[in-house]
Amino acid sequence: MVSTDLAFERPESASVLIGHEDAERELLDAVRAGRLHHGWLIEGPEGIGKATLAYRFAGFLLTHSDQAAAETAGSLAVSREHPIRHQIEAGACPDLTVLQRARGEDGKPTAQFITVDSVRKVARFLSTTSATGGWRVVIVDSADDMNRNAANALLKMLEEPPQRTVFLLLANAPGRLLPTIRSRCRRLALKPLARPLVIEALATVGVGADPGARDLAADLADGSLGRAIALADDQSIDTIRSVRAVLDQFPRYDPVKAQTLADALGRRGAEDRYRLAADLITDWISARMRADAQGQGGEPPLAAVLAPWAEVWEKTARTFRETERLNLDRTQTLLSVFRILSAATR
After folding, report:
1. Which residue among 72, 94, 136, 223 has the highest number of C-beta atoms inside a 10 angstrom radius?
2. Is the C-alpha dihedral spanning 86, 92, 95, 96 positive or negative?
3. Which residues are bridge partners to 138 per DSSP?
4. 159 near 146, Cβ under 8 Å?
């Protein structure tokens, strides 16, 4: 069951962690046993709850410096009234630092990578003593945003960690990290949330205009609550339904309906809707490949069945990439992709 007190807050403010009970228990057990590893690599798709878990664990460590208190704790939860909890929410906790891409006043990233200069600030943070005499925590959100120099600088800290310091590295794509960084961390993979849990969470706080919208968002979220929230707004649901209406007609489709959709997604200000449509289309191709693979009974060989769809997927994905890179006409791109898919399904 999802708590009725649930509210979708910023990770540093969230009171509830939805799902991931096994991951929380693993962290809590490590503290209780007095064998807490200095580096944790928390893995999982974007929006699945990695940051919420990291801040929750950081708050626990910073309010349970006494081992006896940690051993009697039943969860990682910390009271909203605790002063350290307020400091964390305000970004003013002296024993917690967060390493991430530079952000603007709206909170959105303004840099492509986490740079080595940002990592050096962490080194200065670690050169001082703890304000409370307890733990210090470094959250890297996300570690796969580091450029090579930043990754090497962080690696040196992981190789020689200061006493009572814990690094929490969040990774959407852990394979992009240096193998030496992965080898120095204890890996904690967050599993996709069950579809009913995602739907229940959306309904509890009224995200999604109706049950059908919430069901649709959950279907496409791959167990990520953050993605489900993004998909459940009215514009996203309208985009999903409009794109599906075209895809479901292949090999024949209504050119007027396709043109109307392409025009709407090609306008200035519709960039996010266009990218959602691109994701939906490439996912649709992947689903067709899986369906053909499962449906073929050995003749012809599987490679021969999948090769045409693999070519279509690559051609479509390349078209979308080039449109983004070269700032091409998005309307014409979508119309071109619809023609490719129509031909492929004949």
Report:
1. 136
2. positive
3. 97, 167
4. no
Please answer whether residues 280 and 240 qualify as being in contact, where contact means their C-beta atoms are separated by less than 8 angstroms.
yes
pLDDT tens-digit readout, 51-89: 999 999 999 999 998 888 888 888 999 998 999 999 999
Residue that is written with structure tokens 């996203």 in the block:
236
The pLDDT of residue 4 is above 70: no
Tokens of 133: 């005499």
Q: What is the rounded end-to-end Cα distance, in angstroms, of the chain?
A: 46
Of 321, 315, 322, nearest in space to 338 by CA:
315
CB atoms near residue 252 (< 10 Å): 9
| Whole-angstrom distance, CA of residue 308 vs CA of residue 105 | 47
Let me know if 210 is exposed, middle or buried by CB neighbors in 10 A (0-12, 13-18, 19+): exposed
Residue 340, token pair as written in the block: 């490719």
Handedness of CA 275, 279, 284, 289 (dihedral sign): positive
Distance CA 101, CA 66 (A): 33
pTM: 0.85
- Closest Cα partner for 143 from 155, 135, 134, 131? 155
CA-CA-CA-CA torsion sign (202, 205, 210, 211): positive
How do the domains of the chain map onto residue ranges? 21-189, 233-344
Cis bond before residue 179 (omega within 30° of 0): no
Q: What are the contacts of 32-38 at 24+ separation with CB within 8 A?
A: 32/70, 32/71, 32/73, 34/67, 36/166, 37/166, 37/185, 37/186, 38/158, 38/161, 38/165, 38/166, 38/167
Residue pair 346/251 in contact (Cβ under 8 Å)? The answer is yes
| Tokens describing residue 214 | 């919430």
Q: Which two tokens stand for residue 131?
A: 């304000």
Q: Which SS3 state, helix, strand or coil, does residue 68 take? A: helix
